[in-house]
Amino acid sequence: MLSDNWEVLATKAQSIYQNSLEKSLKLVNFDKALGQKYNELPSAKGETTKDYGSPTKHPFQLYLKTVPQSVLDITEKEPVDLLTDLKNGKFTCVEVLKSYMTAAIIASKLTNCVQEYLPDEALEYAEYLDRNHETMKDLPLYGLPFSIKEMIPFIGRAVTHGSLCYLDRIVDYNADIVNILKKNGAYPFVRTTNPQSLMMLECVSYAHGRTVNSFNSELTSGGSSGGEGVLNGLYASPFGLGSDIGGSIRSPAAFNGIYGLRSTLGRLPTADYFSCNRGSESILSVTGPLSRSLETIDLVMKTIIDSKPWLIDPTLAPIEWKHTKQDKFRIGIMVSDNIVNPSPPVKRALNIVQEKLSELGNFELVPFEPFQHERTMPILGKLYFEDGGRDFKATLSSTGEPLLVQTSWAIDGAKDLEMHEQWYYNLEKQKYRKEYLQYWVDKYTDKDGHILDAVIAPVFPNVAPKHETSKYWGYTCQWNLLDYPVLVFPVTTVDENLDHPLAEYKPLNEIDEYFYKQYDDAKSFAKAPVNLSLIGLRNTDEKLIEIGKILRQEIGDTHFCFKKVK
Amino acid sequence: MLSDNWEVLATKAQSIYQNSLEKSLKLVNFDKALGQKYNELPSAKGETTKDYGSPTKHPFQLYLKTVPQSVLDITEKEPVDLLTDLKNGKFTCVEVLKSYMTAAIIASKLTNCVQEYLPDEALEYAEYLDRNHETMKDLPLYGLPFSIKEMIPFIGRAVTHGSLCYLDRIVDYNADIVNILKKNGAYPFVRTTNPQSLMMLECVSYAHGRTVNSFNSELTSGGSSGGEGVLNGLYASPFGLGSDIGGSIRSPAAFNGIYGLRSTLGRLPTADYFSCNRGSESILSVTGPLSRSLETIDLVMKTIIDSKPWLIDPTLAPIEWKHTKQDKFRIGIMVSDNIVNPSPPVKRALNIVQEKLSELGNFELVPFEPFQHERTMPILGKLYFEDGGRDFKATLSSTGEPLLVQTSWAIDGAKDLEMHEQWYYNLEKQKYRKEYLQYWVDKYTDKDGHILDAVIAPVFPNVAPKHETSKYWGYTCQWNLLDYPVLVFPVTTVDENLDHPLAEYKPLNEIDEYFYKQYDDAKSFAKAPVNLSLIGLRNTDEKLIEIGKILRQEIGDTHFCFKKVK
């Protein structure tokens, strides 16, 4: 852990980014016109990582105007189809890498979503694949670059998970999941931003500044896998890897209109990721892919699990990735958790989904009442930082790095627990898990024994909120406490003509009132995507993908890029 | 938690036993001759639970002389065959219950292995099954009584797990696993003894006294599932349920010459069992069956897992119980953990197994070097009692119950950890698990990619040791730390002509010297069974059963009862 002054380190972090950017610019070799366009783009990055830049209001519009069509022809292709082109030799791996690198460079200038580019390593691997096209082209992910959240170990790079004191923690290995993906033909090309402490549904740190939403820079990217959400939201990565202990895959996926899977603990290797509080086992973080392409998420999951990762990571269960055909689905609809009610666009999205699914003959929809969700935060509030935040605070105090507003909010109420207090909260957790399972099975199974397949619910009380206001995790961390897998999926975007704030409203409580007031005007949230959660019992990840595919078919792809390319 | 004087409670515990015994005697209704025989049996139970009785030296001999042949005809039948008889109506369920109850009453007088009989509940269920023979006879375990370790919740009974202060903790539910077995036609008929704190490889408590070995009462029964080991060792139960956090299924199974399966965490419901340190999650206890019948263990596992227990217990993984045919096996032989070398009979057992398996064409045997087993106890020594034993000590101090020698030894070195210390030892555990898996896979996989299927190793440095001397857990707790499933299986019994102590020996260390000296003479261990461990990677429980079946076929059944009945 470094003890240099944090401002010196912030400058150093900036120069690490800058160096990797310059190398990447050489790799992609912009022509003069594109170079000029690029230089003139408003930057979401400040002078140093202590400052914020002045991003354009709607990054994706400028992104699409800037990225050359020849690049878009590759990057906006459905990644599963791109794989076919790569295998067939229609594109070389280096061509695809250069396209995605171009896209990422432009995306990051507009949104500050990349922590560090990996041009050398990526190029080396792409060239290696091209040289061995004949023998390697049958690898399931042949030639696909992907993005990784900064906290995921990558050989030869510092892993800070948003704390400057770790800027010298150069790891000498790749995360298991990175190695597995490389063996299967995919390789990381950028490392994306994550916030201080990783414990916020936004993405701000002194290691990178602030990542802004890809649709509306006045709104948050979500977090902690904020960089992933934005980069994938702009289609500037075929897929990425995030991690989630309270909503960190789901909020950025939702706020940027893409898919994100919080997989069940024990399906994917996560144990070697970095974060604070290592060794704390009461609540565990889990990894999962983010992508605008559900097929790609499916393929990535299948590829990793087919490799038998349980022979590498002892925390995993040997459960194969297996789709089973199902004729009929029974789905619960949870409109509110009865703590914070969703905003008008979120309610509208729930209506859209209900309407579409109820038209199908094989979907039975039932109202799902949340089971005592008010028990969740009192347990998690203690177990997230069971040392009272000492470990995390030490990462700041060593360099004098200031505590950010959102981090401060997250650790508020944490207490350095003595052993029996930890056990007490663990027992509360165990009890609640058991009761919830019983509730789900006993109350919602139909008379033919068909168990509820999934529940559709909000991801957050609102669409992407304004910066520094995402102060409620209930809709996401609920499922971390229970360790239920969740797929977030896009439904629509905010509609200024339809999503008017409620004129009259009697708030349920203080936090509900806070959120009610936040949704002041649909204009504030212009163009923001509206996603929902699809939640299943433990280890039903495959089923969520299946249902997700049906939902997409019914709702249609609403993402701007998809529409445009179509 | 009661605060009455412990001696008063000890008397109360004795009278609970006595009452249940008297009811059971009425149920089985001994004729005059048997009644007299029974009254004259030397008792392993003292006047109160503070005293020890004066058991006969070799309980099984007297057991066989006492139990009427008509009872043995039922109790010594392979339980899987008995099931066929029950289904066919050759025996009624009540007949079978009465036979097993007779056997258990006699077994317990000789060894003090029953904590409490369940005559009323068992009879009620047996009669219910008989009345519904036609509709229920196809249940996989139709009519089979079974025994449960005292710490397993059984409705309407006090669960003490060996601490008198809990004598008023009457539970109002059955453990999930008990409910599942009942739904499948089996039902508990006795609760078996477990020791103070559950943390010893012996079985002594002020709630029952001392349980002695079924083969040689000068030796320990093993523990903590001591009562199960002995009752099943005498064939006085078709199967039983124990629990294991450091060897508690395996040592009693091994010391009494039967099979015992320490299943992988997440296969069987255990979370609702009672013990000290509830809420401590760093090292978890796991349940599993003990039986002289490997087919019964297989059937019980299959029945429970086929019931989808993961829809009841949220800690379980949805992994089906599935045997896969395998033509070739690759087995490691670990002769010593390099900390305490095994005694002569244990080494001989290893030789027998090696010899038999090497004669088979489809078994490849490789020497297996233990991977740094010296790292295990320093981690477990902290994580077993991460509160420094406070929780456990409180159970004694409330009533003044004295700390037993073996418990005292077990908690020696425990420390009330602060949160970062716990995290430190959790990380040490995680690191070791990962390195061990890598070692197993990388070092022992053959050139065709065939991973080592299992390792055969001692269960303990010796056969059942003398009372109060089982002061080394390394051969069992090693696999708890790694969460590897282990099947212990019988190989032979101590042979006075073959198993001479080593005349010359240079001990590896102090504890090795202690064990060397303990094995003073084969006569001290006369008739003691010699079992071994079969260890697999996580979730290979089925494979262990498969290999166990081949081993049995090759070694032959060595258990006295089996031989006699044959």
UniProtKB/TrEMBL annotation, chains A, B:
Catalytic residues, chain numbering: 149, 224, 248
InterPro entries in the cross-refs: Amidase_dom (IPR023631), AS_sf (IPR036928)
Alphabetical UniProt keywords: Hydrolase
Residues annotated as binding substrate: 198, 224, 245-248
GO molecular function: hydrolase activity
Domain Amidase intervals: 95-544
Transmembrane segments: none
Family matches, as Gene3D superfamilies: Amidase signature (AS) domain (3.90.1300.10)
Family: Belongs to the amidase family.
Entry protein name: Amidase domain-containing protein
Lineage, top ranks: Eukaryota, Fungi, Dikarya, Ascomycota, Saccharomycotina
